[in-house]
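Researcher: Here's a chain I'd like modeled. Treat it as a single chain, no partners, no ligands.
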Amino acid sequence: MAELILALLAAGMLVAAFGYASVGHGGASAYLAAMALAGVAPPQMRPIALALNILVSAIATYKFERAGFFRWRLFWPFAAVSVPLAFLGGAITLPGQAYRMLVGIVLIYAAWQLWRSGRAGEEMREVREPPLALAMAIGAALGLLAGLTGVGGGIFLSPLLLMLGWAGTKQTSAVSAPFILVNSIAGLAAGFTMKSASLPAYVWILAAAVLVGGSLGAEYGSRRFANPLVRRILAVVLALAGSKMFLV
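Model: Modeled as a single isolated chain. Structure tokens:
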């Protein structure tokens, strides 16, 4: 990869990691978007996104747990089934065109959710416990999708928790971060187990960038609401990248 493109890719991922970590996300959808715009080959996109996701979601998990927002009773029903399904999804290698189409759909959906969340901050309804069977079914579906695409599933879990009244804003971030973490670990582990995943040498440059952005974002987001403008800028980038996936 050309040095200028790599530098721009790292800078973009740093900003994305800040914005995503501030709401308890790992940022995989933004990393996929950036790599799509930079012309990274599809076989490399999923393992890179998952590896960076692990770094940022681990930081966000620590920050939101330390701030006192994590709820084990809300987390485990989603995670218990999502992890083996994420491993299964990570073991499946989709044909290039099918992968691009699926990732394009995920990016456009993520863009829509981020744009909507630009005005978020208030609780949408009274918080109540999710039904166990439904939570586990949702976790299974999101885990499989996470493994197949290289996202952690938080971009799907977060709006569900808020819209269904299962968690408040901070609790949603505190549960989404570890959910993304365990699914990303499972998906990447499956890729290495099946020998279908490999990381390029330049991944360490990207890792350093997202560690800086993720640390700052998680610290900011665990103590105050993320800047809506950051979310909407990210939404535009994701929408452009998602559209590009359908054109290549």
